[in-house]
From TrEMBL, chains A, B:
SUPFAM superfamilies in the cross-refs: Metallo-dependent hydrolases (SSF51556)
Domain Amidohydrolase-related residues, every copy: 117-371
Signal sequence coordinates: none
PANTHER family named among the record's database cross-references: 2-AMINO-3-CARBOXYLMUCONATE-6-SEMIALDEHYDE DECARBOXYLASE (PTHR21240), ISO-OROTATE DECARBOXYLASE (EUROFUNG) (PTHR21240:SF28)
Pfam family membership, one: Amidohydro_2
Listed name of the protein: Amidohydrolase-related domain-containing protein
GO MF, any single term: carboxy-lyase activity
GO biological process: secondary metabolic process
Annotated Gene Ontology cellular component terms: cytoplasm
Keyword Membrane: no
Keyword terms, alphabetized: Lyase
Length: 397, 397
């Protein structure tokens, strides 16, 4: 084949806020009607401070109705065809059009500032809409169920089973666990067991963070220095907790750390902290749950969703992490992603690398991670995938 | 001089718990009497889980009455003489003998699990004892006032003034700010101003952390992957908040990150996050408070207290951080420190490096940071400092 199969590891979908009502169980309609205007207003306020208004206005003008691909399948497929993307992993939240699930069941999925029962209701509403959206084009849409897993294990197990039976291909969990049990707690074992059995990969995505005081100087820089940490806490708590030792087929993905330099550091940090030294004698045998080095579990159980930044250091870090761990992504329809200049940025990131490596990062590794239809994807890629020649022209010039 | 001047950046002192009563204002005696047995019991419990009992018993047997140097000046000076250390920066908490200030005014200095008024009372009790302890031998004892700065700015300013007038040479602040304002908040400006005026360096020390569930597997590994992060949050919040821009003479130290690989990462992380890219366009001008790169402020305002780990990677990282930023330390009397084999470990860490670099790290940089008596220290070093020849014999072999 003269084209690459591209499976984006980082796509975002969600209805315009008011349209989630239809998918919400009727006992939550009153709460929804009461909350919806406040939620929209909060997002508008947030946008004023964080996602600068002016930037968004220009962004909308530039990309036209492409933002509506967050919920409109026809527009989405048109964008994917233009972008050369055969399929996508679908997280919640279109951001610019504020199309996130209600009641805090969004990409932050925080366990504070919301009520567990309502967050669950919002998650189920999103999952039910998403299942419909994915069934429209099951080969191209790898939907992730939003699972607020911290509150109620029975509900968690039930929703994972529902998602699996309804064609969703993985789950998205909160990375912020404040006030609840971290993922090294043994109570989560039945969850890991079910994910392993159903071959549903577990995803964490940047976005969740504690509340910052947005009236103070430096809060954004502080957030930028910390967001990858907040996302990655489940990695070391699960690793040192022995989760990957107990569940060797469990698959975990960490998506959009904002530059992949983060993961080589984290792998090294875990290995250093796991190596017994004079300094840790007072700590006892805290590695008893592991038979391998943390980075060895990483190489077996963990993948990194790379929302591609076209710079050399990022590409170099792909090799430090391991080429078979990297799942490239566009982050469509977020403004920090590659769309609508995906091919150009793809070539900037990956152009000139060995063909086999590019194939793995763009789509081959995703085929290993997800339970998807290889033949159907190959057909789509043959039609719209980026020509391999693009990646070598530049290197030859 | 044929000997090095050694100023340890990391020493710990504290009374046996029951002896803090004398230094506590009388209105807190009833609370102290009610709390003291519970606090001692909690430390014993903690020791059973974290600072393994068996390890501590062996440690006590090995080092004899040396642990009593945590509060006994005669023993402390004897240990320092044997260790070749002329002077020390003094943080609270002897650990093994549980000699920490009461009411949570300890090295964790956490803003939860204690009452602000009581934590302040415990801190003042420690500071009053410490001022007495330092006045016994002012050249050798660089005492740090414990300041629970999050609750009450007037009390903070008052206590810094008291500490400065009573011979203490710097302050130790909580690094965990959960539930209170982070250090980018402009309300702290008068504090930075006073510290700059009085030339009192500000210290953060590892130890503070959120509560982990100590019944679950992997919690120690999780803590080990996170403790340096918890300590370092003030660095980027102050940097991006513009504190070093506003207070160019403010001096901040971060002590005992457990392997100095951490700081080159953090400097790089801050610089990457500060560099405007396509991805951050939606964030607006979040660098408006800085006229330099974060790592440039680091090179001017920040020092690292290195509780020496004798391995090559750590020594290499000293050069990445900058030799003039490094303050070597023994961590006496903590078991993870170099005592009682300080000279041997010093030589393992630094042996063979250029003499001028060794001098900076062992003591020269500390002379820049602290308001100390250079002549008195030179005299002590000439008597007990480690012979420079030790550091080159090994390299020549």
């Amino acid at each position: 084949m003269d084209r690459y199969l591209v499976i984006s590891s980082d796509g975002h979908v969600g209805l315009p806020p008011e349209r989630y009502r239809t998918y919400l169980e009727s006992q939550y309609h009153a709460a929804f009607d009461e909350a919806i205007e406040r939620e929209i207003r909060m997002r508008e306020e947030h946008e004023k401070r964080f996602l600068i208004d002016d930037f968004n206005t220009k962004w909308r003008a530039r990309v036209g109705d492409g933002l509506e691909g967050a919920w409109d399948g026809t527009i989405r497929n048109r964008v994917l065809d233009q972008d050369g993307v055969a399929a996508e992993v679908l997280f919640p939240d279109g951001i610019t059009e504020r199309n996130a699930p209600p009641f805090g069941a969004d990409i932050g999925l925080k366990p504070f500032g919301t009520r567990p029962e309502l967050q669950w209701a919002g998650a189920r509403a999103h999952n039910r809409w998403l299942a419909e959206f994915c069934i429209e084009d099951p080969a191209r849409r790898i939907g992730l169920a939003v699972i607020p897993a911290l509150y109620d294990l029975d509900e968690t197990l039930k929703e994972i089973r529902w998602a699996h039976e309804h064609g969703l291909k993985g789950v998205f969990f909160p990375s912020i666990t404040d006030g609840y049990d971290m993922y090294n707690h043994t109570k989560y074992y039945p969850v890991w067991d079910l994910l392993q059995q159903t071959k549903m990969p577990l995803h964490f995505h940047s976005g969740g963070a504690p509340a910052y005081d947005t009236t103070q100087p430096g809060w954004i820089g502080t957030y930028l220095c910390e967001f990858a940490f907040w996302m990655t806490r489940p990695l070391w708590s699960m690793t040192f907790g022995g989760v990957f030792e107990e569940y060797p087929q469990l698959k975990v993905l960490f998506t959009e750390a904002g530059g992949e330099f983060w993961f080589p550091w984290v792998m090294q940090l875990m290995d250093i902290r796991a190596s017994a030294k004079h300094t840790s004698g007072k700590l006892g045998d805290y590695n008893a749950n592991m038979t391998m080095k943390p980075s060895d579990y990483f190489a077996r159980n963990v993948w990194v969703g790379c929302s591609a930044l076209p710079d050399e250091e990022t590409t170099e870090s792909y090799y430090q992490i391991g080429i078979d761990r990297i799942l490239w992504g566009t982050d469509y329809p977020h403004p920090e992603g590659t769309w609508p200049s995906t091919l150009e940025k793809m070539v900037l990131s990956l152009g000139g690398l060995p063909e086999a490596d590019i194939q793995k990062m763009l789509g081959g590794n995703a085929l290993d991670v997800y339970d998807v239809d290889h033949d159907a994807l190959a057909e789509i890629a043959a039609r719209i995938g980026p020509a391999k020649s693009h990646f070598y022209k530049q290197a030859a010039e």
